[in-house]
């Protein structure tokens, strides 16, 4: 037989999956690997999906998605950021944030292009970049509290740089970017012809101050692709509803890629998403209040255990530094699950610059977090330093 695609054969199963798959092998395992809310989806979302099915809404929609849904996204962005994206021409509904990332990167990249990626970050970008024959260039954020600086970005740009991908609030660190930090990045990038991709899928999950976005800066709007979706904010990861926001002309190209990829998002799911955006604001607040309580507890316990850690301001992850115990986060996480049946994600899953850290999710229940902390404390107590 012929060889499969050379790029595909280089891809590995992500660390998040490797460790969540291990959970089933242990009795009584506490699972802090989750990248999704433990809350149940709201009844008004499910009812809208069911109603759509009962009313035979099972045909293709417009490739960009139902106009009513795009209008709901446009209104939601306006409500949160006071910025208007046009529902007809600047918004594309996709199958989750994942398809949004894939469509945008496939729209932009040629083999040999470089994509700047501040790391540690979400592990979903690099494989797509690789599949396109392009190259990921890391920007180390470990010395700037996981936020890339304008200087670091400027220093990484070369002739071959095609795009930069930001993700904030950041998976796996939980840090987010302030208005001033974004402004400093805008100052650099608005002077270039590089495309900016900003993955703001956790923008509704912010805990201490309102979310700010590159969307608030007109100077970069012409080069800006925003990736987001409802998976995390509305606890509907399985519904697969995401979106891309971009200038009309560029979005037409992304739409072409999307239509050859999946034609449209499943129609009943689009109806559920309309309902989520219309009626979900109170529930988002209620879930966030619970995450804050869990974050605060987890953060305090980790500090008491002596692990250096930044208090997350968004998403539902915390990223303690375990380098005093181990310089091999995969080995550490393996030993942790074997010794005390606690599953976490090794920091190295989020690039080599995540080595020396582990990611813990606080999207689970408070009881699980308390139990996880007790187990981690016991494990560290017995761990040879
Ligand atoms: C930063 C980030 N972007 C995108 C995604 C993918 O989102 P979706 O489930 O909507 O495809 C995830 C999922 O974990 C994520 O953490």
UniProtKB/TrEMBL annotation:
Domain Aminotransferase class I/classII large per the UniProt entry, residue ranges: 28-376
Catalytic class of the enzyme: transferase
Any one Gene Ontology BP term: amino acid metabolic process
GO molecular function, one term: pyridoxal phosphate binding
Sorted UniProt keywords: Aminotransferase, Pyridoxal phosphate, Transferase
InterPro entries membership: Aminotransferase_I/II_large (IPR004839), AspAT/PAT-like (IPR050596), NHTrfase_class1_PyrdxlP-BS (IPR004838), PyrdxlP-dep_Trfase (IPR015424), PyrdxlP-dep_Trfase_major (IPR015421), PyrdxlP-dep_Trfase_small (IPR015422)
Annotated EC: 2.6.1.-
Cofactor: pyridoxal 5'-phosphate
Family as reported in the entry's similarity comment: Belongs to the class-I pyridoxal-phosphate-dependent aminotransferase family.
PANTHER family, per the entry: AMINOTRANSFERASE, ASPARTATE AMINOTRANSFERASE
Protein name according to UniProt: Aminotransferase
Species for this entry: Macrococcus bovicus
Lineage: Bacteria, Bacillati, Bacillota, Bacilli, Bacillales
């Amino acid at each position: 037989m012929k060889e499969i695609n050379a790029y595909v054969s280089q891809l590995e199963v992500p660390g998040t999956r490797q460790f969540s798959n291990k959970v089933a092998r242990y009795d009584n395992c506490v699972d802090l690997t989750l990248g999704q809310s433990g809350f149940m989806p709201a009844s008004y979302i499910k009812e809208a999906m069911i109603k759509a099915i009962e009313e035979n809404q099972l045909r293709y929609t417009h490739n960009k998605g139902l106009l009513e849904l795009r209008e709901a996204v446009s209104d939601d962005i306006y409500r949160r950021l006071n910025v208007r994206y046009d529902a007809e021409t600047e918004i594309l509904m996709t199958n989750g944030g994942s398809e949004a990332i894939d469509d945008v990167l496939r729209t932009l990249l040629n083999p040999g292009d470089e994509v700047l990626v501040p790391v540690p970050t979400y592990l979903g970008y690099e494989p797509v970049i690789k599949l396109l024959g392009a190259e990921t260039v890391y920007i180390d954020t470990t010395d700037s509290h996981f936020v890339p600086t304008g200087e670091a970005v400027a220093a990484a740009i070369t002739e071959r740089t095609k795009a930069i991908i930001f993700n904030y609030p950041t998976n796996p660190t939980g840090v987010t970017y302030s208005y001033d930090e974004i402004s400093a990045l805008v100052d650099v990038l608005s002077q270039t012809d590089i495309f900016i991709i900003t993955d703001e899928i956790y923008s509704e999950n912010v805990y201490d101050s309102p979310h700010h976005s590159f969307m608030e800066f007109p100077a970069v709007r012409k080069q800006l692709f925003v990736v987001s979706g409802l998976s995390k904010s509305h606890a509907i990861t399985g519904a697969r509803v995401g979106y891309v926001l971009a200038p009309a002309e560029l979005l037409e190209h992304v739409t072409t890629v999307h239509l050859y990829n999946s034609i449209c998002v499943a129609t009943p799911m689009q109806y559920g998403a309309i309902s989520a955006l219309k009626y979900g604001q109170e529930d988002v607040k209620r879930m966030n209040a619970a995450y804050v309580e869990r974050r605060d507890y987890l953060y305090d316990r980790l500090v008491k255990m002596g692990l250096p850690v930044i208090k997350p301001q968004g998403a539902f992850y915390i990223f303690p530094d375990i380098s005093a115990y181990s310089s091999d986060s995969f080995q550490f996480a393996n030993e942790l699950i074997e010794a005390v049946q606690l599953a976490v994600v090794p920091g190295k899953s989020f690039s080599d610059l995540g080595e020396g850290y582990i990611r813990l999710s606080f999207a689970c229940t408070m009881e699980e977090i308390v139990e996880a902390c007790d187990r981690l404390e016991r494990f560290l107590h017995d761990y040879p330093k």
